[in-house]
Amino acid sequence: MDNTDDTIRRFFALDAAGDLDGLIALFADDATVVDEAQTHRGTDSIRAWRADVASKFTYTTEILAITNGGPGRFLVEGRITGDFPGGVADLKWDFALADGRIRRLMIAP
């Protein structure tokens, strides 16, 4: 496992543990997250987004595949199960990394 793969795995482990500070530390200061057609720029905005999700829903994530999408890019396929509307969702996380930190994350069905 290389450092970039480790960053992705730590992202999901910290999310599962509810470690918001640890999760935010994985992001570059000027990182961008796109989720549910909303863009969150910078760690303050990303922190608010994650805190909002964590306050609304409880869920678990099952990683089905991690694919190297080219230099610094990883595509993750997974399934979340929880107490949100519908209860189950298959999602794709598209990570762009630089220097071991997340620069961009796009989440889509």
From TrEMBL:
InterPro entries: NTF2-like_dom_sf, SnoaL-like. Pfam families: SnoaL_2. Residues 8-103 form the SnoaL-like domain. It comes from the Bacteria. Coiled coil: none annotated. Gene3D superfamilies: 3.10.450.50. This is Nuclear transport factor 2 family protein. The lineage of its organism: Bacteria, Bacillati, Actinomycetota, Thermoleophilia, Solirubrobacterales.
